[in-house]
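Lecture 7 notes: from sequence to structure.

We start with a single chain of 248 residues. Read the sequence below before looking at the structure.
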Amino acid sequence: MDDHNKRVIETALLCAQEPLTVADLTRLFVEDIPAGEIDATLLDLQKAWEDKGMELVHIATGWRFQSRLVMREYLDRLTPEKPPKYSRAVMETLAIIAYRQPVTRGEIEEIRGVAVSSNVMKQLEDRGWVEVIGHKETIGRPGLYATTKQFLDDLSLTNLQSLPMLEDAAPMAAAEQLGQAVMEFDPTATVETVIELDENGQPLIQVESEEITEVVAEEEIEEAAEETTDETTEEVTPEAEEKSVEQK
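Now the structure, written as tokens:
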């Protein structure tokens, strides 16, 4: 491909707001250009930008230019908004879904050894990283969670095979390793998980602090409602009705 056409592809990628596929790039030209030529041009551009602050990467939804990781501390000074921080629970849950998908909420709890808070799943779904892709044919038909293309794009991955390899695939050791393997969404978060076992060697499902708070709050509300009902509502017996009529 000549230099002019290379420049056209480079400009299109730099100006695009979304990743572009090879099929998208072929529409830049009136003449038919083989997909193989465009692929070769993309690799040439990738190499040409190796020593610059931007890089051309191939992700799940196509090709895009993005700033290199070493430039983050400088670019962050231009944006007052800080990226969201993710807790240990969110990181571990996301990692388990990424490596063991499709997976149910109960299976996530079995691996982590703690109950999964509804708030954790909501954060992941709102961010567009996980979604329910079906239901497991078992009692209750629980939802099967899997990662999305948005998850791959945000981690600059082409596919799930691009995820880091795990040293130990044993379920009992998975929680800590999975949390470490996924991208550092929050450098201050830790991914240490202690899984307690019962006498039969099975994990004991615990409840995380944030979920305990929710449960306690709900119980307190229910108790308060019951007490109010007891105070304001008295059981009326036939004898009480007769006394009331006599008094009147």
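Residues 171-175, 183-197, 203-238, 243-248 have pLDDT under 50 and may be disordered. Keep this in mind for problem set 3.
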